[in-house]
Amino acid sequence: MQRVWFNKTFSSVSAAIRLIREADADGRYCIVCSSTNPHAPAFLAAHEAATEPAGLKGEAYLDWCLHFCREKAITLFMPGKEASLISAAREQFAALGTRVLCVAEQEVLHLLHDKARFYDAVDLPATPVADFRVVENIAQFDAAYRELRAKHARLCIKPAVSVYGLGFSVIDEERSSAQLLLEGVAYHIGLQDLQSGLAAMVDFRTMLLMEYLGGHEYSVDCIADHGRLVCAIPRKKSLVIGQGQIIDVRDDILDSVRQLSTRYKLNGLFNVQFREGANGLGLLEINPRMSGGIAMACLAGPNLPYLALAGFDRGYAGLNIPALQNGLRVTELAHATVLP
Fold first, then answer.
1. Confidence of residue 335 (pLDDT cuts 50, 70, 90)
2. Alpha carbons 22 and 195: distance in angstroms, whole number
């Protein structure tokens, strides 16, 4: 039996563990899950659970991971927290008998997490990145705003380094932030308020001022094998709340994801996001991890977490990957439960 460890990561790990256990008819995998939260919902899905010490990061966390793998006889490690550091230490884990599934090499992971650098480097003619400028002070912001606004009807701003879309806002030239708040308009900010706030700071962390892509967003859950795309499931998000998402297999998306997989030698389970704009589909980001909507994607047929684990464990050659059920409308339903 393989002992598989998921360390602290995003909440989607609960669905991933559940999907793996549903597909693991032979009981090949014992799933160990850890978190700094002693009541993590993912503990309900795992065979074994462990509480991580709070506050550890960097080399201290790496040392703890090595000790944990030795103590728990972990054979396959699917890292979330400190994935890039753990990726660079694969040989240390291998000496303990632990194989580490790395989505990419450490330098690539650093690139993907920094959208300013990634946007500048990526070359994807069919689905290019939206027009953008890097800004770090009010003078740069004002100059970039004049330049981009002359070409695009709406602009947006977001941090170069962020997760969950934190810090993203569409810029509103008509209403103040207070008006937007009172009207319940999320992810928007008033232009004058934004300028005043930025001007009050000498400089600020790197931000991206961008053309706003206002059409459908596509979230694509993928598996690759050292740069070769194995499977990709695109989900089109509805513009109307409550109408779910559509499994929408588009050739331009699949071609772009295939190119990205090859270019960055992606491996295992990851997510790519696109959005439609005035000039067609544009790339938003590569998330070197599973998405929050992974369970919805799997309703199309392929059980991505299980396939990624089994492919890493014993290769993809003998795996049966079901055909995608294109056109499905999918959603997720919350349900009440008792936490551990």
1. confident
2. 52
